[in-house]
Specification:
Blueprint lengths: L9 E4 L2 E4 L5 E3 H5 L3 H13 L2 E5 L6 H18 L3 H4 L4 E3 L2 E4 L15 E7 H4 L8 H4 L4 H25 L21 E7 L2 H4 L6 E4 L5 E5 L5 E4 L10 E2 L6 E6 L1 H6 L8 E4 L8 E8 L6 E3 L5 E3 H13 L2 H6 L2 H4 L29
Parallel strand pairs: 3-4
Antiparallel strand pairs: 1-2, 4-13, 5-6, 6-7, 7-8, 8-15, 9-14, 10-13, 10-15, 11-12, 11-14, 16-17
Helix pairs in contact: 2-7, 3-7
InterPro entries: DIOX_N, IPNS-like_FE2OG_OXY, IPNS-like_sf, Iron_ascorbate_oxido_reductase, Oxoglu/Fe-dep_dioxygenase_dom
Keywords: Iron, Metal-binding, Oxidoreductase
Family: Belongs to the iron/ascorbate-dependent oxidoreductase family.
């Protein structure tokens, strides 16, 4: 389904009506101008929900939208390559390299994930000879990655600066001062390709429920499939879709920003499901992460560095499902509490027809 300006309140999915949750829209141009009312909206979105749309349609955001389109074309070329070309270097580290389909736990019980992914770290792209598959380098697409990472880095840093202003932070305590480009971090551009069901089979579905190992996640996808679970204590709030919005990115608060804010901000609990199991789905995520040696107090009250949290949570993502079930939810969900249980997703989709959309008054 294409992005919509006025999305429905519900959609028919897997034989039931599923809510489409609304999101606040923050204007990037106004943040650049440090508009006080827009900064208040930004702080409110991070405090109350942990996710929002970022409107990039003004003159300052259009370059990022152009970079997004170039990156999408790069992804279509790259993921069409043979597995040998895509996996030239393998997974060099947890935040650099290629991950084939089925590397992590899937969204349904007993399944693996349904996507392949190319990850390029910000640290790596700044080196003279980055370890990027020849299928990207030979085509001249390295410039596209450099531009996209640069644009995403600028946008996320602007948001951090505005959040620091909104919380009246000073000096070294400002969020952006824990995210210097020249210091090692696991900041990463991740390009994800969700394959059609007929190519992956029923045992590989979506992306499991989690919060992000990031400070802020800048996410682009023009296709449906992203679901969030709104926080709050006003009864059970089930997982529901969020609609792609033209000219906008999704932004998620990640674990590190929640910790750095003293748990004032919410981390976004989300997952990806096959809304239309017949399509190739593409998404671009920029995970801005704190410098590796940045110290936080995590959801368990432990003093831990950003680098240690990243490595521990990445391992949890790739652990066998049985181990994940025995581990504390504080790792996968970043300590976020849930008000209810989600209805299980069936491993085998009962239909591959395109999902119809209905509106509920």
């Amino acid at each position: 389904m294409a992005p919509q300006l006025d999305p429905p309140q519900t959609v028919d999915w897997m034989g039931k009506k599923v809510p489409v949750w609304g999101m606040q829209t923050i204007d990037y141009g106004r943040l650049l101008s440090h508009d006080p009312s827009e900064i208040d909206k930004l702080v409110s979105a991070c405090t109350d929900e942990g996710y929002f749309y970022l409107n990039l349609q003004g003159i300052d955001g259009r370059r990022m939208l152009a970079d997004q389109q170039e990156t999408l074309r790069l992804m279509e070329r790259f993921f069409a390559e043979p597995i040998e070309a895509k996996n030239e270097f393998g997974l060099i580290s947890s935040h650099l390299g290629y991950e084939p389909v089925g590397s992590r736990t899937g969204v349904a019980a007993g399944t693996k994930d349904g996507y392949e992914m190319l990850k390029v770290s910000r640290d790596e792209i700044q080196r003279d000879s980055p370890k990027i598959p020849a299928a990207v380098k030979a085509s001249g697409d390295l410039r596209i990655l450099e531009n996209t990472i640069g644009s995403c880095n600028t946008i996320t840093k602007v948001m951090l600066s505005c959040l620091s202003d909104g919380l009246f932070l000073q000096g070294a305590g400002r969020f952006e001062n824990q995210h210097r480009n020249e210091r090692p971090s696991t900041t990463t551009l991740s390009m994800m390709h969700y394959l059609p069901h007929e190519e992956t089979g029923p045992e590989r579905i979506g992306h499991q429920k989690h919060t992000d190992i990031s400070t802020l996640t800048l996410l682009f996808s023009e296709q449906w499939g992203l679901q969030v679970r709104p926080p709050g204590t006003c009864g059970a709030r089930e997982m529901g879709f969020v609609a792609p919005k033209p000219g906008c990115a999704f932004v998620h608060v990640g674990d590190s920003l929640r910790f750095a804010s003293g748990m004032k901000f919410q981390s976004c609990i989300h997952r990806v499901v096959p809304f239309d199991p017949t399509e190739h789905r593409y998404s671009i995520a920029y995970f801005l992460r704190a410098e590796d040696d940045t110290m936080f107090i995590d959801s368990e009250g432990r003093a831990i560095t950003a680098g240690q949290w990243h490595d521990q949570k990445f391992k949890a993502f790739t652990d066998p499902e049985m181990w994940q079930a025995m581990a504390p939810k504080s790792m996968i969900l970043g300590g976020m509490k849930e008000d209810g249980e989600d209805e299980p997703i069936k491993p085998l989709m009962e239909t591959t027809a395109k999902t119809a959309v209905s509106t509920q008054a």
